[in-house]
Every structure is written in C-alpha cells, then in structure tokens.
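Extended Data, panel c. Modelled sequence:
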Amino acid sequence: MSSNDESSNASQQVANSLKKPVHRKKFTEEFEQLLNVEISQTLWVTVHKSRSAQGTTFVDIRRKKEGQWQGKKIYIPTRYGLFLKYKEYEKLKERFYHYLKQTDNGFQFSIFPGRTLLGEVAADGKSFALELKTESKESKLVLTDEEIIKLNSHSVVDGIAAAMCQSIYD
C-alpha cells in the first residue's frame, strides 16, 4: 500500500469519526400554522409562527409547479405590538405590495454555496481541511400582476395582520 493510499484512508477514517447523527425537527414541530389561503389552484399563502421563545412570524408564498413547490418566505419580527391601528395596517399593505412588485416579481430561494469549510484536522502530523459538499440550487417564483393584486387584497392582508396580532398575544 502506498503512502498516498494510507493518508487517504487515515483522512477518511478521521472524517467518518467526526460525523455525528443530526436530528432535525419536523417543520410542524418548529412552527405553528396560523393562516393558509389559496389564492389560485397553484398559488398559496401561509403564515407560520415559530414555536421558539422569539416567536418569529413569517409569510410563506408558494406556487405548485410541475409537482414541486417553489416559494418565498417573508420574515417579520413580532416582538413589538404591530399592525393594531389602521395607519399601521395600511403601511403593512403598502410594504407588502412593494415587496411583491420588486425585482421583476422574481424571488431567489434555497441558495446553497458549493462547499463550506468546516475546519482543519491534524492526523499523524499532517493537516487537511474537511469540507461539507452541498449542491448549488437557485429558483424563482414569478408572480403576475393579477396574482399580486389578489395577494395584496384586503382579505389576504387582513388574514396576515390578524395572524400576526394573534402571535403577539398568544
């Protein structure tokens, strides 16, 4: 066996020994759904609240296309008393509309770097870098003007504001 084979075997053994089983909570364990609205047959809006102490709320806009969901999450902090007065509600509605209209109605999501450096490990006096490989993935959710108008209607924004107020006082 050559020294290159030995060093690659040693590095593989060290890498395998550093792997820990990762238990990730299910989405329903981490978040509570406060609102779910069907805008059209392929477009949905939901509001989720984190079950953690911080209680972050986010609006999730998703489109089902070719059997897969594409979407965008809008994170909204709920530490403060928000959207209780008419002026604040109108401000929410206006900001939501501008957000939906921005950047040619396209949203990028699920962007992962190609490699992430975890650290350097020394084995038998030689150091080598451990890397986590991930796939690069980028997609867009494109909304039509008609869909933006439906998303920004009083009924949808009312539901979002009500869900957020509910999360503040729960």
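The first helix runs from residue 3 to 18. This feature is highlighted in the accompanying rendering.
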